[in-house]
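Collaborator request log, item 7. Partner lab (contact: R.S.) asked for a structural prediction of L-threonine 3-dehydrogenase, mitochondrial to inform their binding assays.
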Amino acid sequence: MPVMRIFSKVAKQALLSTPGCGCQPLTVAVRNISFSPRQVTSDASFHSVSFSETDHPKVLITGTYEASGFGLLQKRYGKNNVILSDIRKPQNSVFHSGPFIYSDILDYKNLREIVVNNRITWLVHYSALLSAVGEANVALARSVNITGLHNILDIAAEHGLRLFVPSTIGAFGPTSPRNPTPDLCVQRPRTIYGVSKVHAELMGEYYHHRYGLDFRCLRYPGIISADSMPGGGTTDYAVQIFHDAIKTGKFECNLRPDTRLPMMYIDDCLRATLEVMEAPAETLSMRTYNINAMSFTPEELAQELQKQMPELEVTYEVDPVRQAIADSWPMNFDDSNARNDWAWKHDYDLPELVQTMLNFFGSETRMARFN
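Returned to partner:
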């Protein structure tokens, strides 16, 4: 599932007392429209204020044209304090959920105007092309995932924002230890998506150490959500199987039945994101963390689902491109640093995941299909 939609899908966890961020006067060479890309001066100083200096953050989230379900988040922070953005016209549910504005992450001036005009203090950057989609259009993925990130980093540094950029299991490669994969190890991904995410991790950490940017990053496993259709990721089979099971009672998987990958339910993902964003800076021993909940294979997921839907038929037609990607990714994440530093703890294991997904679709729908 696309990480750019994760933060905005189901904001079900009430937030704790939350920080605001500000900035002190900066010396920054800014790009005008006709100039070459700006450079941050060597003597620039960037600072984020403590949580107590403001009541709520003002949040800009990129890449959210399909986002929905911001009710609790907007209730907590105020409807006008969470701004969704994209270059595409939003769906009706997004448009009516709260502020939505046009933003192009490749247009530095546009981003800068949004941050200034809306007094943004947190920036959550989900715009990205995912693994399989990125391989089909490397040039576009490079532009969106890398050039766009550079704009985001410079905007966040210039204005003292707290910046969250998600990373992924795809940031690892075939030479990384796979079971488990620690936070710090060899990272040599084989996809443009993975390469761009390693780049994001390193650039964010560089800006943190060089300029004091409050950069925070989580490596997401495969994310499973009931209210979202798959969007081009290698782990999307774990979402598609539920849609197909409900609609047709049949599912064709594009990975081998024994392909083990780390996974997480959307509620756990959202809560982890909010928790790391709210964590006091002094508790963070690093700026990029693994997070994990469960690890399973397509066969294990199908067997768990068939306990409640025994009529479900599962077949396998392996996509060699997606299989090669999956075979280079971690089988299981070591997220002990997240659990030790900011008390991360997941709520959903495989049985709870399956039950929750089926509850979302409703027992009446299943009964109508199979009776």
